Amino acid sequence: MRHSVSGVPFLKMNGLGNQIIVADMRGRADRVTPAAAIAINDTPGTKFDQIMAIHDPRTPGTANYIEIINSDGTRAQACGNGMRCVVQFLTAEQGRQAFTFETVAGILFGEELEDGMVTVDMGTPKLAWYDIPLAEEFMDTRQIELQIGPIDAPVLHSPSVASMGNPHATFWVNQDVWSYALDRFGPMLENHPIFPERANISIAQVIGRDKMILRTWERGAGLTEACGTAACAAVVNGARTRRTDRKVTVTLPGGDLLIEWREDDHVVLTGPAELEWTGTLDPATGVWTRDEVAA
Ligand SMILES: N[C@@H](CCC[C@H](N)C(=O)O)C(=O)O
């Protein structure tokens, strides 16, 4: 095993194929720099969607402060799949299942279940236009005026928008979600002037009251195999537009997530997390080494 002098332990993990790096920054005052995040993502073998940096707690009663960094070096307020990875790592380390965390978006609760699945209470959605945020006032965020494609035959239009701490737009479609060039439309919609802080862009096909298929172009990361907060936002938007119930299995390219928008307004997500390998990372530069595994 080779460790750089200023290195921190890191784990390459995934949550339904959402590529996650967990960086253990406990006991340190520094942060993973944007330059380091970009360098890690540019290095073969560590292409990722988010880094979940575990810091010492800032607020009594919480286990850790979690900072979330996209692969383009920008900070994100929330990451459902990454939170499941953090819970799984800490459960394996500490032998206890339940944790309360703080993120920039608020306090979250996560727990590893007996069957190995991880459930995270992602808090309450924010639905006012200024909370998402949008650049102009919309009284009803269940359907906003936004379209892409020809004016008389838009390819995607009239999304529902919601914040799960981070901004999401859900475009409802009737045909196969794979028939849309999300790689082409995603960047345009992510950076549309209506979203002053950019947005995560999803295409949703409702299959039944409790089933939905979802693809997401993530702000700051691009096309991903899964986006937990996008699935949460899609179920909130599905329920409040009466397309779905409040408990829905969301099928993402990487697999299924169970999302429940509880009556107490909290959105809870349940799914798997997987450890791939471990290593050491310099959080200032992004230089990393992979631990050697005994044969
Ligand atoms: N993969 C995440 C969402 C990550 C944050 C997003 N890219 C943003 O900038 O808001 C998830 O599982 O929720």
Automatic annotation (TrEMBL):
Binding annotation for substrate: 18, 50, 70, 80-81, 166, 200, 218-219, 228-229
Assembly notes: Homodimer.
Protein name: Diaminopimelate epimerase
Enzyme Commission no: 5.1.1.7
Family membership: Belongs to the diaminopimelate epimerase family.
GO CC aspect terms: cytosol
Function text: Catalyzes the stereoinversion of LL-2,6-diaminopimelate (L,L-DAP) to meso-diaminopimelate (meso-DAP), a precursor of L-lysine and an essential component of the bacterial peptidoglycan.
Primary localisation category: cytoplasm
Provenance organism: Devosia epidermidihirudinis
The entry's keywords: Amino-acid biosynthesis, Cytoplasm, Isomerase, Lysine biosynthesis
Top EC class, one word: isomerase
